Amino acid sequence: MLKRLSVENYGLIERADVAFSEGATIFTGETGSGKTMLVGALSFALGARADLAMVRAGAARATVELVFEPDPALLQRLNDDGFALEAGEEAAILRELTPAGKSNLRLCGRSATASYVRELAPAVAEIVGQHEAQRLLVAAYHLEMVDRFAGDEALDARSQTANAYVRASELRDALAQSEANERNALQRSDDARHAREEIAAAAPELGEDERLTARRRYLDNVERIAVALRGAHEALAGDERSAVSALGSAGAAVSSLHGVAPALEQIGQQLCALQSEANDLAATIAREIDATEYDPMELERINARLDLLDRLKRRYGGAIDAVLEHAREAERVVDEHERKDERTAEMTAALAAAERELVASADRLGALRRAAAKRLAERVRREFADLALASGTFEAVVEPLDAIGRSGAERVEFAFSANAGEAARPLAKIVSGGELSRVLLALVVALAEVRERTALVFDEIDAGIGGATAVAVGARIGRLAKSGQVICITHLAQLATWASCHYVLEKREHRGATTIGVREIAGATERANEIARMLSGEPHDTALRHARELLARAR
């Protein structure tokens, strides 16, 4: 249930505070007084798209706050989603918009997104405007209304049908694409098989080309290496003039001073250590000299191997790691193609299963729709008696489609006749504006029985209605307000008389600026004056008498 709406600098509304009644809260005013702007503010609070033009000229921001009382289901969702209310705290949506387009929204005191609030909106209030009447002229909307009336089971079946339809379509497209690509796939598989076999035969190893290149460089310079090594070995340990001999002589000379000059002992030890290292180094060089002896065919084998690796790198990616990755990808391509028949069989079986699921869910949805369409038509026809359409008839015609679609296997079209003896024809072809408004109201009332018990907001759906019909529509709105909260923007006096709480919107001009004020009228005299104004444009005696009669009848 809606409790309060506070509006500041939204459109032409400089400031407005509205307290909603538990029954019918009615808003009236002269044409152009901004009644629909108030509904716009309510829609803005419920997550509607922000329109920068709605920030009042010269204002720093537009602010709308909606205070509401959530039902147990909505309260549980708020708790689950992190918007739990503190003890004594009221549920509220506060939304702001600056001229620069910066928007801020808080739900129960915490930051929230407009999209999240839009999801909650149907559990807070349902806004039924003139555009809803125009949507009645579109057959696709009829299907939506029947499914809503059918309830959660039908909505679940519709979701399952949509999912199965998408799944079947994807599988059908994948099979068609697989067949269309078969020639290219065969060529790709042959190329991959050749690459796989060529790389497998060569068996390249990661880093192998670098190792072989280094070995070839060594072999290309082996003579220079051997000469240098032999020279080094000769200098280290070739004869009595070598470094090893010299270090030994130096060590012996210093060691002869043992006991004479203790401080020189460390020098003797160092000379001995250097001689040992020189011997080790000479042995290492001797082994390297032996290694310069090689098989003359080795260089030829290395060159041939490097040529093979270079061909593989040029063909498959420029580096050994890329060649190995190409081999793995080729293996995958070959394996995938070899499994083509198996995969096609799997996809065909999956498609058959998806199509069976599609048919089953569509059949279930169709049965629920046909039953719901019949009940909805009966419920709407019962409502006609209270809306000055006692002779009217209404049908929700369910027709099969040629094929199952995302929304099922049927289309629904509402058919209507306002007069006895006339065959019902498609709604779009025959109704006047007043008849359309009454059919919409009958549908809204019928749907109200199966929807969540949220506030109903009617935004001038009484277009084209007057006289006795207006009285009947007003009475029906009044009775609807007995079982739930109704907010109504109207230009009909016959409807305004049913208000539990009545507000008037007034356009004002001050110092060249236009604003809209919202004023509650409560006293009997003030209400009678407003009803009289709505009836005849001014509260003269005749209009006042008629206004008092209407008010008395509503009471």
**How far from one another are the termini?**
23 Å
Instruction: Say how many strands there are.
Output: 15
> What structural class do you assign from the helix and strand content?
alpha/beta
The whole-number mean of residue pLDDT values reads 86
- Which CATH class of the domain at 1-124 and 454-522? Alpha Beta
**Count of helix runs:** 20
* Shape field: elongated
- Within CATH, the superfamily of the domain at 1-124 and 454-522 carries the name P-loop containing nucleotide triphosphate hydrolases
* Major sheet summary line: 6 strands, antiparallel
- Please give the CATH architecture of the domain at 1-124 and 454-522: 3-Layer(aba) Sandwich
Q: Please mark out the parts with pLDDT under 50 across 5 or more consecutive residues, or reply none.
A: none
Q: What is the strand arrangement across the widest sheet? A: 2-1-4-5-6-7
Into which percentage range does the β-strand content fall?
15-25%
Radius of gyration: 46 Å
CATH topology call of the domain at 1-124 and 454-522: Rossmann fold
Helix content estimate = 55-70%
